[in-house]
């Protein structure tokens, strides 16, 4: 594990645990609950993917985006009545110019890392449930390549702090969204 990766992983372990616990409230074996789970992801991921200038850190950012897969799964589940959480969506967007490379790296770490748990969750889905988003193709070198790109960006403490702050804010947005949709 390179030092930038270790620092991001250690620095956000608790945030990951909270997000994991918040999403445990959904029953992935239940169509309606799975739709709410995807909606909770969509409300954070779609605006964040649109706002994040990820190509400044990884040139294949466009190919990494999973918003289209998420929309596809939600469209497939269109007959599931979606519950509305009754609060305004939390889009995690930053003002223009607030994305320095370190902040981009922190957000990419969270978004791309979420694929690792997603694949594990996809195995819990009943046969016939759409899974394009959770089971998205993810060769392990894509994760490694991304982490290697972080190293030259995050070797200074100030940059690392900026990445951690950004990662924490993305994790927190997912946690809030999960809680809103779980309440339904
Ligand atoms: C929904 C419940 C979740 C479960 C059960 C879960 C589970 C996991 C598991 C098992 C791993 C390790 C996989 C491996 O090392 O091969 C992992 C890694 C990770 N997950 Fe999650 N996850 C969940 C949600 C999320 C969400 C919503 C996010 C972010 C939005 C996220 C971000 C990450 C990150 C960044 C890593 C990489 C950690 C590292 O090795 O640096 N996870 N998750």
UniProtKB/TrEMBL annotation:
Alphabetized InterPro entries for the sequence: Haem_Oase-like, Haem_Oase-like_multi-hlx
Pfam families in the cross-refs: Heme_oxygenase (PF01126)
Coiled coil: none
Gene Ontology terms, MF aspect: heme oxygenase (decyclizing) activity
Gene Ontology BP terms: heme oxidation
Protein name: Heme oxygenase
Organism in which the protein naturally occurs: Sphingomonas naasensis
